[in-house]
Write a structure and sequence with these properties.
The complex is a heterodimer. By secondary structure, chain A is an alpha+beta fold. In chain A, the strands form two sheets. Chain A has a six-stranded mixed beta sheet with strand order 1-2-6-3-5-4, with helices on both faces. A five-stranded mixed beta sheet of chain A has the order 7-11-8-10-9, with helices on both faces. Chain A has two domains: about 200 residues, Metalloenzyme, LuxS/M16 peptidase-like (Cytochrome Bc1 Complex, Chain A, domain 1), CATH 3.30.830; about 180 residues, Metalloenzyme, LuxS/M16 peptidase-like (Cytochrome Bc1 Complex, Chain A, domain 1). Chain A contains 15 helices and eleven strands. Chain B is of the alpha+beta class. Chain B has two domains: about 200 residues, Cytochrome Bc1 Complex, Chain A, domain 1, CATH 3.30.830; about 190 residues, Cytochrome Bc1 Complex, Chain A, domain 1. Chain B is about 45% helix and about 20% strand. In chain B, a hairpin with a 2-residue loop joins strand 9 and strand 10. Chain B is globular, with a radius of gyration of 22 Å. The chains are: A alpha+beta, B alpha+beta. Chains A and B meet through helix 2, helix 4, helix 10 and helix 12 of A and helix 2, strand 5, helix 4, helix 10 and strand 10 of B.
Chain lengths: ~400, ~425
């Protein structure tokens, strides 16, 4: 395993974790843009743009793009989050150049008016699909409640209204600003020919012009709120809680992740034994979410409406009994084993390594092997986890509950 | 692409399979028993699932809690499931902990405690899981499609029904385990970094003295055409559609799978292009090959907002029928390229290999190699695919929709 990184003259960074033994390689453009970089009126533009990137370039029609992706036998996709938009493909080593050529060309899309109108319908279908699915908008509502006017409060998909109002010109302007080479990172993992990759990408992106794209980071001021939502067709009650936790750059995140696993992993955790194993709740979990400058500790419950209040009280008890029920050595050992083994099992595919390597570099400018990532977890002390646990008692929290009745 | 698959049959009928992938650090195994929902008494729907759950609540030297803790200690990722014909456990872990992991799996199937005080909890979990499907219309649509298409016996859901779950007793679970958890017809398939001789010795030690009845034959599965609509207060209408195709063990299976690939593999496939890309009707549309014993089907799904549901259904059916106009050489070329790549990438995952081997053995009684699959796919031609389509045109359609309004069924589907 070897790590390489280079910066091109236009500001584009190229990084790779090279494993000559791998059967495939994965390539991805990590764009530092997401819903937090949008204005409220343009909510959803990053995600809509992600769809439009597959709709053709100056050289390729939409049909050409899709056919070439399939011609390369690639497994490809893209996603948009609050903080980034990522386009990736996994291919056989002999297709490295062709894959890079296609992916790089896609970063300079045609954004044709006609495609824009058709794709808008697909986005509206996607919004309708999520509106129909549990927890019926509770996550979006919780983020709005918790983050207030902080940019992380914005919905990744936007709303029907904002998507209906977006126009191709403002999308073009947004693209020009956010998809500049200095705001992109080309990430590769697996059987990568790095020297060849550098030569090719230099040639393919030479015309790209840097911009002043940036991101303003500021600590949110978490708010407390209790929100009830009614979704009449629902049969279960779904409740979500957001409270502060360490961010992606905070050294304390390993402690918080271990604590979340002990308290609320989907198997073997305190919540599991109290609520899931006993058949009281269909699902109950405590988990972390991390952003660039801040993070969340989240709790989730899905159960029959009539059992909700009792179950939710159990979750609150589990979260706040740091003093009464301290973490045991055994719990800590099991959580560490589970997390570290999961990382190794997950890392066997280059496509999974792509995201670990890409995220660590684009957000923290760090490269970490699996071994060193495991070490961070192994070194967490019981005192640190216990301290974090006890500090949960009086955290600010937003709670959103959705069910058939108010 | 070189590949070696080991096979070993224990005297009690259990088959042990192994595919070495020494470049990995992991191992993964699937343990498949011939005990499925079709073995449930008709008044105990859901029993197979509750029995599997009860088996994991204490077995061999472990209590319920010790099973979970021990697997977490070993860093084992696991899942369990019940299908029409099988009950299975799948586990993946670091190569060094294979033996203790397999010991736990063997205990779960062979020496369950069936603790009386946990039945109620297992029942409540099952009832909650059954209830939660009402909030997942896409999944519910396929549950209903299975029921409609395969009838009372073979169309059962692993979730069971409320009555069956309420009535299940501990004795029912014990009897189900006694009567259907047998080595004859059982498959243990392992992939990853392991030593075959050592593994066979472990398997013999853990399963060699397991006795049981010979595998019983079941009636033939046949598809039942028809359609139904379930009213649901949602923005989207969910469409699940099925039609006859040859099954996995049929000599022409790869022709059929190739046609499904033309319809649904990749972003240039016909359904994605016609329904989503050209018309923007859906976010999600797909087709897949499915076999229930020797009854093969193609299953399709599309989800779209209600006012566009009729057009979506019509375009989906027309696109399926467009196969009759022939296959373009470019389409076939892309299909072959995708298969080649996925066969190579399959070597990166011990979990996907172990479950595929178990599936292959259950359906075919052997494990086709990558070289064999590649040869079968390379042999496909535009002519052979068209010929297959005309020989086995879509027929015996089943259609289930869930949404605010019922749809009109196109002529093809009403046949």
């Amino acid at each position: 395993m070897q790590f390489r990184s280079e910066k091109l003259d236009n500001g584009l960074e190229v990084i790779a974790e090279i494993n000559p033994e791998a059967f495939s390689l994965s390539l991805g453009y990590f764009v530092k843009t997401g819903s937090r970089d949008e204005t409220p009126e343009m909510a959803g533009v990053s995600h809509f743009l992600e769809h439009m990137m597959f709709k053709g370039t100056a050289k390729r029609t939409a049909v050409d793009v899709n056919r070439e992706l399939d011609d390369l036998g690639s497994q490809s996709n893209a996603y948009t989050s609050e903080e980034q938009t990522v386009y990736y493909m996994s291919v056989l080593p002999e297709n490295q150049h062709a894959a890079l050529d296609l992916l790089s060309d896609m970063m300079r899309p045609a954004l044709r008016d006609e495609d824009f109108q058709t794709e808008r319908q697909v986005i509206l279908e996607e919004i309708a699909m999520y509106d129909d699915q549990p927890p019926y908008g509770a996550m979006e509502r919780a983020a709005e409640g918790y983050f207030g006017d902080h940019p992380l409060s914005r919905r990744v998909l936007g709303t029907k209204e904002t998507v209906a109002q977006l126009d191709p010109d403002s999308m073009r302007t947004y693209h020009q600003a956010r998809y500049a080479p200095n705001n992109l990172t080309l990430v590769a993992a697996g059987a990568v020919d790095f020297d060849q990759l550098l030569l090719s990408v230099d040639e393919l992106t030479r015309q790209w012009k840097p911009s002043t794209a940036g991101r303003s980071l500021n600590q949110p001021v978490p708010r407390s709120e209790d929100i009830e939502m009614v979704h009449p067709p629902a049969t279960q009650q779904y409740t979500l809680q957001y409270s502060p936790g360490p961010g992606y750059c905070d050294a304390n995140r390993y402690v918080s992740r271990i604590l979340a696993s002990i308290l609320g992993d989907d198997s073997g955790s305190r919540l599991f034994w109290e609520l899931v194993d006993t058949g009281l709740a269909e699902s109950a979990a405590i988990f972390t979410q991390e952003f660039e400058e801040c993070g969340l500790l989240c709790a989730f419950l899905a159960c029959a409406p009539e059992q909700h209040d009792e179950n939710w009280a159990i979750i609150q008890k589990i979260l706040t009994q740091g003093k009464q029920a301290p973490i045991t050595d055994r719990e800590l050992e099991l959580a560490k084993n589970k997390i570290c083994s999961g990382m190794i099992l997950g890392s066997e595919r280059p496509s999974n390594r792509l995201f670990s390597v890409g995220n660590a570099w684009t957000i923290r400018r760090k490269y970490e092997t699996i071994q060193s990532a495991s070490e961070h977890y192994r070194q967490v002390s019981i005192e640190a986890v216990q301290k974090e646990f006890e500090s949960l008692v009086d955290r600010t929290k937003v709670i959103v509950s959705v069910g058939p009745q108010g | 692409m070189q590949q070696k698959v080991f096979e070993h049959r224990l005297p009690n009928g259990m088959v042990v399979l192994g595919e070495p992938m020494p470049w990995l650090e992991s191992v993964a195994f699937s343990l498949l028993l011939p005990a499925g929902t079709h073995n449930e008494p008709s008044k105990r729907l859901g029993l197979a699932g509750v029995t599997l759950e009860m088996c994991q609540r204490g077995a061999g030297p472990y209590s319920s809690r010790e099973i979970v803790e021990q697997l977490d200690f070993l860093g084992v990722e696991r899942s369990s499931s019940v299908t029409t014909f099988h009950t299975s456990l799948s586990m993946a872990a670091m190569a060094s902990v294979l033996e203790p992991t397999l010991e736990i799996a063997a205990a779960i199937f062979r020496q369950p405690h069936f603790p009386e005080d946990e039945l109620e909890e297992a029942r409540q979990s099952a009832l909650l899981e059954l209830a939660s499907i009402d909030d997942d219309p896409a999944q519910k649509c396929f549950k209903e499609l299975k029921k409609l298409r395969y009838g009372e016996l073979f169309g059962r859901s692993s979730l069971g029904d409320e009555n069956g779950l309420e009535e299940t007793t501990l004795l029912d679970c014990k009897n189900f385990q006694r009567d259907h958890y047998h080595p004859d017809g059982a498959i243990l398939s392992l992939a990853g970094n392991f030593n075959w001789e050592k593994f066979v010795a472990t398997a013999e030690q853990l399963f060699g003295d397991w006795k049981g009845n010979a595998l019983a034959k079941h009636p033939k599965v046949a598809s039942i055409p028809g359609n139904s609509h379930l009213g649901h207060d949602s923005q989207q209408t969910h469409i699940a559609l099925a039609y006859d195709a040859v099954s996995y063990d049929h000599p022409e299976y790869y022709q059929s799978r190739g046609l499904v690939g033309i319809l649904s593999d990749g972003m240039s496939s016909r359904l994605f292009a016609e329904v989503r890309e050209k018309r923007g009707l859906v976010y999600s549309v797909s087709a897949s090959s499915h076999s229930l014993d020797d009854c093969g089907s193609v299953l399709c799904y599309a989800g779209t907002t209600a006012p566009r549901a009729q057009e979506t259904l019509d375009v989906t059916v027309a696109t399926i029928r467009s196969l009759n106009q022939g296959i373009e050489p470019d389409e076939l070329k892309r299909l072959k390229s995708r298969v080649r790549t996925s066969l190579v990438m399959e070597q990166e995952s011990s979990s996907s290999r172990s479950s595929q081997m178990a599936y292959d053995w259950a359906y075919l009684g052997r494990v086709p190699t990558r070289q064999e699959l590649l040869k079968a796919i390379e042999a496909l031609t535009c002519e052979s695919l068209l010929e297959h389509y005309r020989k086995y045109p879509p027929r015996r359609w089943s259609l289930v929709t869930i949404g605010p309004e019922p749809l009109e069924f196109p002529d093809a589907v009403s046949q």
